[in-house]
C-alpha cells in the first residue's frame, strides 16, 4: 500500500503507464487522468512522456527531464536515465525504435529514423541520429553517431565521432588520439611533437 501511495504522490511514470493501459482507449476516466498526470508532470517534473502510447513499455531510473516522441517505440526492459530525449524529426515522422533490455544513460539524444536493437548500452551524453545500431553493442560517453550503421557486439569508446560510416560486427572504434602540433607564424603546421 505504501509503495502504491508513493508512486501516486511522486507521479511515477511507470506506475501511471501501467494503470492507463488497463482502461479502454475512449474511457472518460482514462482521458481525465491522462490529462491531469501529463500536465502535472510537465510542470512539476519537467518531463514529457506520452502516457497513451502503447508502444512505450520501458522503465525510468529518474524521470526528470525526459522527452519521448508520441510515435517512438521502446520495448520492454529498456532503462532510461534523466534528461534523455527520444524524438522524431520536424515532420513528426521516423521516430526512433529501441529494442529490449537497452540502457540509455543520462543526457542522451536519439533523434529521427534511428533503430537501436536489443541489449545495447549507451553512455551518458551521446547524440545519435539516423543510424542503425545492432545487438549487444556498447557505446561510451559523449559519442556522436550520425547516418551510420554499427554492427553486432561492437564497442564505441567514449568521445568517438562516427559520421556516415559502417562499422562491421565485433569491432571497436576509438577516438583519434590528440596530437600536439606547433603552428608557424603564418598559421601552417610547422612540426609535430
UniProtKB/TrEMBL annotation:
Pfam families: Hexapep. SUPFAM superfamilies: Trimeric LpxA-like enzymes. Keywords: Acyltransferase, Transferase. One of its GO terms (molecular function) is translation initiation factor binding. Its EC number is 2.3.1.30. Transmembrane segments: none annotated. PANTHER family: TRANSLATION INITIATION FACTOR EIF-2B SUBUNIT EPSILON (PTHR45887:SF1). This is Serine O-acetyltransferase.
